[in-house]
Each structure stands twice: as C-alpha cells, then as structure tokens.
Amino acid sequence: MSSKDRIGHNEAVFRDVNERIEAGQWPGEPDKPVAFRCECASLGCNMLIELTHSAYERVRADPRHFALVPGHELAGVEFVVERETAYVVVEKVGEAERAAEETDPRDD
Question: Which residues contact 44 (CB under 8 A, 6 or more apart)?
Fold first, then answer.
C-alpha cells in the first residue's frame, strides 16, 4: 500500500468514528454544534472540530470530502474546497481519492 493510499485509509477511520458520533446525536437540533474528530491523516491527532449536523451532512455528501482542523491538510493528497473559522473541508485526489471512495460508509 502506498503512502497516499494509506493516508486515505487513515482518514477513513476518523470518518467512520464521526459517522458514529453523528448517529448518536440524531435526532437532534440540526443547527446545534457537535464535536467531531479531525479527519486528518495523522493517526495521533485527537483534535476536535465543531460542526452542525447540516454542515456535517454537506461534508458527507461527497465521499472525497473530509473535515479537518485548519492547517492539517496535506498538499498533493488533498486540497481545500471550503474554509470555515473552526474547520476546513478538503477533497482527496489521486490514490487517496480512490481509497476515500472505496471506504465510504454511506456507499450503497
């Protein structure tokens, strides 16, 4: 497994954790902030970001998108598609993109 492919798989682990966090919050207030794990490539990262349910759903609408603490993005593997005060949304490219799509928990 290449390093870029491994990065995509590492981030997919955090996406799965966040899917369970969201499931535990629903039904809830769609505009109430919820603490989610940063979905960056670093397995040692334990930083939290706050997103509303609707913001999280916008990120999850594309399996290539991940929510990260600003500054945790990796050039060459992803690029920022949305920048908010508390988080950035990145889109995977190349091998990391393929890994993100293959591990999408919402893929039917």
Answer: none
